Amino acid sequence: MSKVELERYGNGVALVRLNRPERKNALDDEMFCELLPGVLDEIEEDPAIRVAVFTGAGDAFCSGADFEGCSGWDLDDAAEAEDYIRKTCEVPVRIRTMSKMSIAAVNGPAVGAGFGLALSCDFRIFADDAHFRTPFILMGLGPDFGVSYFLPRLVGIQDALDIMLTGRRVPASEAKELAVAWRTSPHPVEDALEYAALLARQPTRAASVTRRALYQSEYCDVQTEVLVHEARSQGVAIRSSEFMTLFREYRKSLVNG
Questions:
Q1: Bridge partners of 17?
Q2: pTM of the model
């Protein structure tokens, strides 16, 4: 039985299940570097798969890195350790940049790298009793697996700092308030599969273009791209008669209170 299982449905949906329930689905070297990348290759190359749902076996989503099954912690050379971390952290980048849509069905604790895995998905549906943590700080580590990129873009810098500097447990209800969880549900896997089937029915090219456009705006450099596009559109708008009319009305409203 594989530590990472791929189950295909006939409706454009696939289910990826982390399958180490005895270890709370902790990720070891084989999962980081071989099994998850291999499953992502299968998903990307299969035109019948439109949406991938990620979840964990048993009562956990993923408890993060399995320190007993990861060789990087024994490396004495800093450069070798960096290379190891780079290799293990390719998975969240690949999930976010692949052409297929993704949903994390967070059926239990999502901790450390497990939380990064959930964050890399397009949608996150949390079980009512699920929670997440970023305990890197408690081990004297900085964040990895994409957490420092994904989390502040969802919750803002202050909340991300609070979560990462305290390593505290964040329950599903707060995850929903922070927009980390898109939904909470007593049946996250079933709900994720149902929503995945809906997404899989959307026009393939239009869905891909929409998803790519939204994520490209995240990757754009604020000075050389975002501000250039904003300035260009504003330059057109500011010369329009509509702007002058509405601007005068706005100024008048300020004067009149």
A1: 5, 55
A2: 0.85
